[in-house]
Fold Porin.
Amino acid sequence: MKKTLIALAVLAASGASFAQATISGNVTSGYRASTAVTTAAGVSTSSDSSGLGLDTAELFFTANEDLGGGLKATAVLSFDTVARAGVAGGDTSLTLANASWGALALKSVKGADYLSGGIANVGGVGFDGKIFSGKTYSDSISYTSPSFSGFTIGLSHAENSVNTVTTGQGLGVGAAGAPTGRDSQRSSGISGAYAAGPLAANLGYTTYDQKGTEALDPSNSDSKVYASAAYDFGVFKLGAGVEARKLVKGTRNDALIGAALPLGAFTLNATFASRAFNDNNAATDGTKTGYGLGAAYALSKRTSVVANYRNWTQNVGDNAKSTETNLLLSHSF
């Protein structure tokens, strides 16, 4: 159960007002064994590593305020690395929502690739930083409509940090861009989603500016179309998603298929992922693929034992595979 902190603020004009904040988080720790394959001058080499350690240590502060007239404000402040080495910042968001007109959100987050986290919680084994792109920072504003019989529409604008930038652009910076177009791209998009009963689906279109040139920035984005769907059949869940991205030069196409099989306290899952570059760069054109297998046993609603295995192509055109095996104990609060 989430712990609740109640802060009392005294307002001279209107008397006493109560603000409520909740604290939640996750601690996941255990054992990892991995083999990383790299290619230099056409020769594949591998390095093995294994050991105990901390996988996840997250802390979230969520505050809600009723502004009256059906309007609600929600602020989320998080720390995504809480360890002996120090505490590092995490995602931050501020949302204004009303049941009659929807939600407006301002966010500064380090988000995963569209397909990395699986489709509607189906699959369970992500491939961000492996088959798909690693997490990147963005500052964004978005609008989500109210639900119309399960349907919602979204509009968004983001100032994305790519390539060398490792932090959000910061207030007043993204509109002018980073020092070079290679480090930052702004994007605007529209999306639609449906979630009701056993079906969850979404699709969208995004366009980018600050693209750079073909000579310097062939892998920067021009536009993308994406879609995914998941269905709960009762005895198992199945999901699939695709993203077709037009680059400054060539294309990049991603795909993911995932399945989850609940068996009482056990949940088994499997994921297959691929990324294909075409006409972008002779050194990177081709397809990378990977698969993941996982199992989780729920000791309670908040504590689980998790085991998973990933196997993926590190380099296009190289048959050598990188692997990762995790055995973890996870607790949410």
Q: What stands out?
A: Residues 1-18 have pLDDT under 50 and may be disordered. DSSP finds no helices and 17 strands in the chain. The two ends are 6 Å apart (CA to CA).
